[in-house]
Description:
Blueprint: H1 10-17, H2 21-25, E1 41-42, E2 46-51, H3 66-75, E3 80-82, E4 88-90, E5 98-99, E6 105-109, H4 124-136, E7 149-156, E8 159-164, H5 171-174, H6 185-191, E9 205-211, E10 215-220, E11 234-239, H7 243-252, E12 257-258, H8 263-269, E13 275-280, E14 285-290, H9 308-311, H10 313-321, H11 325-333, E15 338-339, H12 364-374, E16 380-386, H13 390-406, E17 408-414, H14 417-425, E18 431-436, H15 447-450, H16 464-475, H17 479-496, E19 499-504, E20 507-512, E21 515-516, E22 519-520, E23 526-527, E24 532-534
Parallel strand pairs: 2-11, 2-12, 16-17, 16-18
Antiparallel strand pairs: 1-24, 3-4, 5-6, 6-8, 7-8, 9-10, 10-11, 12-20, 13-20, 14-18, 14-19, 15-19, 21-24, 22-23
Helix pairs in contact: 10-12, 11-13, 16-17
Amino acid sequence: MRRTITGPFAVALMSLLSGCASLQSSATEVGGVRMTDERPVRDGGTLTVALNADPDKLDPSLAQTLVGRTVFAGMCEKLYDIDQHGTIVPQLATALPTVSADGRTVTIQVRRDAKFSDGTALDARAVVTSLLRHRDLPESARATELAPLRGVEATGPYTVRLTLKQPYVPLTGVLADRSGMVMSPAALKKYGKDFTNHPSCVGPFRFVERVGGDRIVLKKDPDYYNADQVPLDGVIYKPIPDGNVRLANLRSGDIQVGDQMTPVDVRSALTETALQVFNSPSLGYQGIGLNVGNVKGLGEKPGKIDTPIARDARVREAFELSLDRELINKVVFQGMYEPACGPVSPGSAIAPGAKAAQCPKRDVARAKKLLRDAGVKTPVRMELKVSTTPESSRLGQVVQAMAKEAGFAITLRPTEYATLLEETDAGKYDAFTSGWSGRLDPDGNIASFLQTQGAMNAYGLSDPAIDRLVARGRTEADPAQRATIYDELTRRIGAEHALIYVYRQKNYAVTTTSVAGVRIFGDGLVRVTTAGYAR
C-alpha cells in the first residue's frame, strides 16, 4: 500500500500510523490469551453478544460509550480503522490520506463500491455531510475532535478535501473512530433528531430494532461491499450488567460472546474447556471524576461550585492520596489490571515518560495535613456515583473505606449507566467513576475531556495551561517534542486532581468454543465481521 503523506508532518503521522511495540507484542498472545481466532467458520446463524451496559444513543455524532462503539463496529464503518497491531488502516477510504506540506490540507479517496444500509450509495458528498454534522451538531461529542476542521468539500465524486485551521497531527486517528463514521444523508434528512432510532451506515450488518434495556438486533446487509465475506446472518447485542449472569448465560449457550468480562469471571472461564478467553491491552483509563466547575452541563462555560472538592485543589489531592492503586487492583480486580495515574496509556502512539507515568503512593498523613491546611471541616462529605455492576460496587466500597481513613465521608450512589452519563454530563454530581476506552493518539484521551468546554468535559475543568498544551500537542510534528508536551500535560492534569486516574483495565471477552473469527484489538471492540460458528 502506497502511503501518500508528505511534508514536515509526515514523521509524526507515520509514527501514529505504525502503532506501538506494546500492542504489536500482544497481537496474538497475551499470557496465553488470544486477541484473534482464525479458525474457519461456516455460513449462517445468529450470534448473541452480551454487553456490560445498555448503549447510549446509536448516533455516531452523539454517542459516548464503549458498548455503543461495539455495536457500531457491526454496522457503522469508518474512513479508517485499526488492526491487531495498532496500525491505522483504510476502511471506507481507499488509502491513507495525502497531507500537504504545510499540514493544512488533507485529501481522502473514498470507496466506490459501498452502499448504506438504506440502499443509497456512499460518495464524497456523504462524507462531507457526516463530517460537518459531527463538527457542528449541537451536543455533538465529536465537536472537540473536529474543531480544527475549517472546511470540507467534495472535489470529485469520491474525493474529499479537508481544510484545517492549523496542522492537526491526530486527524487520521480521529477518523479511525466515530468522527470517521459516515451516515446516510438520506436517513439523516428523513429522520433528523430521530436518526438514533433509525441509524443507517455502511457496515456488514444493518440495524433492525432496539428494545431498550433488552436487545439491539442487526441483520446481515446484502448490499455490503464485502457481503460474501460475512458468515453470520445476524447479531443480537444484549445488555447484561452483572458479569456472573453473563458467564452463566455463556455456560448455558444463551449467549455466545460476553464482552468486558470481569477478572473474577475470566479466571473462572479459563478453567472451562467449553469457553475461550480473548484480551488486549487497553488504550484507555478508569478513574474518579470530580465536579470542579460543571454547573450548566457539557459545552457550557465553567462556573463556581461551593463544595470543598471544587473550591480547593488541596482537598482533591488529599482524596487522591487516600487511595492505594496497587491494593485496589489486587482487591477489586484480582491483580489483572494495571494501576494508572495519567491519561496516556503505555500502548499509545506517544507513550508517557517514566517520571510522568509514576503514580503517587498512598499517604494518609499527608492527606490529613492537606485537609488541615485547606481549613475544611472533616469529615469532608461527598457523594460518589457508581454504576450498578457488582465490580463498580466493590470499587466504590474500597474507595469509601480508604478515603474514610484520611478524613472523607463518602456516600455511594449506585446509578444505572445511561442515567449516570446523563447526570454527570449535566453537572448533577460530586464525584463519579469515570472511564474511557482510549485512542491510539494521546490527544484522543485528553482534549475532549480536559480542554476548557471540551465536548465531554463533564468535570468543568478550565486551565489555560492545559488548553495551550493541548493545542501544541495537536500541531507539533516531531514525535520527541510531542512526547515532551504530553509528559508536561500529564503533570499539569495531575496537579488539578479533577480526574483522578486509578487503573487501566485489559479488554477481556469470553466466547464459547463453538464461535470462531471474533477479533479483539487494542480499542476494546468486539469485532464480528468475520465471526461465525466454527466448522
